Amino acid sequence: MAPVTAFDVVGLARSLIDIDSTTGSEGPVVRWLADWLRARGYTVETQPVEGERVNLYVTLGDPVVVLSTHLDCVPPFFPSRQEDGLLYGRGACDAKGIAAAQVGALEQLRASGETRVGLLFVVGEERGSHGAHAANQVPPGSRYLVNGEPTDNRLGAATRGVCRVKLLARGRAAHSSHPEQGESAIEKLVDALVALRTLDLPLSPTLGATTYTVSLIDGGIAANVVPPYASAEVNFRIVGPASAVRAALEPVTALVEIEDVAEVPPVEMMTVPGFETAVFPFTTDIPFLSAWGRPLLFGPGSVLVAHTAEEHVHVDELRAAIGHYTTIARTLLARDEA
């Protein structure tokens, strides 16, 4: 891990990336960053989440604007490397590079004497948003929350939500030499998954069509046994209320049981002049940080490479994000003063 002396966004990003912080194991990166920020004179408070997992709340004064992102990453971990103007590594764009750029913006603001901007770094965004839920119980009174996710340095006008369900098929075990004596849960599940393709799912003029991914499948007990159970998790990216997706799933209930796993509503966000805006199909911690102020969404990097084996961010885009976050914060502060 390369040491960071004077502020260097790439150096800080690489230091964060090189600490494995797969969701649930964020403790080491949180402790490292807390020590790094305290050594620079920031006030760093921890917010308990679960066990050793904590959020970091970083201030110089009473913040009107809070820049926020997450420090956990999806598996598998792989360390940083820099090639041809790109910074690679797990978290390069989702979202440790973003965290480094937000620190850089706070450094710039502090150098100009501005103390009304803070940072919130949460854990658990990639699965369950546990850190955001915990943070929302202790809001600081800020008026604006600028959430960081890879948006190609564009402001997000809206994001889709999530409706994640589990399809449960039940059958009856039997020796596979006499399949007529059993009832295959896997075949029921396959029929249900095929039926998904025929459903009329909700549409939105702003967010487009509801999409889905069959993301996990499990079933059976042995190769020579008619499977008595099978399940699949299906992740819908929703453009309206989750209840509309559940209503569309009604025909599938004749084949399998449906359990609710997770729900995140779609969100519309404020923007400020001077930035390109876009609508994004992913979801964020924003719905769970409602007490932290009016939300904005912005960050360097592309979601198209997040969660992949080639996750990266353009170094120039990462460096530019420092100025962009600073500009957004100053614009919001000026609006608050008006």
Your description of this structure?
There is one protein chain. The protein is of the alpha+beta class and 338 residues long. The chain folds into two domains: 9-159 and 266-337, Zn peptidases (Aminopeptidase); 161-264, Alpha-Beta Plaits (2-Layer Sandwich). Helix content is 25%, strand content 28%. It is built from seven helices and 18 strands. It has helices at residues 9-17, 27-39, 96-111, 130-135, 185-196, 242-248, 315-337; strands spanning 43-50, 53-59, 65-70, 81-83, 86-88, 117-122, 144-147, 155-159, 161-170, 203-204, 208-209, 211-219, 229-238, 257-264, 267-268, 277-280, 294-297, 312-314. Strands 1-2-6-3-7-17 form a six-stranded mixed sheet. Strands 12-13-9-14 form a four-stranded antiparallel sheet. The chain has a three-stranded antiparallel sheet with strand order 4-5-18. A hairpin with a 3-residue loop joins strand 10 (203-204) and strand 11 (208-209). Helix 1 (9-17) runs antiparallel to helix 3 and helix 3 packs across helix 7. The longest helix has 23 residues, at 315-337. 44% of the residues are buried.
User: What's the helix count?
Assistant: 7
CATH superfamily of the largest domain: Zn peptidases
**What is the domain tally?**
2
Structural class: alpha+beta
**How are strands sequenced across the largest beta sheet?**
1-2-6-3-7-17
The multimeric state of the shown protein is single chain
Q: Per DSSP, what share of the residues sits in E-state strands of 2 or more residues? A: 25-35%
CATH architecture title of the largest domain: 3-Layer(aba) Sandwich
Overall form: elongated
State the end-to-end distance. 45 Å
Order of secondary-structure elements: HHEEEEEHEHEEEHEEEEHEEEEEH
Biggest sheet architecture: 6 strands, mixed
Stretches where pLDDT falls below 50 for ≥5 residues? 1-5
Radius of gyration, whole Å: 22 Å
Residue share in helix: 25-40%
**Whole-number mean pLDDT:** 96
CATH class of the largest domain: Alpha Beta
CATH topology of the largest domain: Aminopeptidase
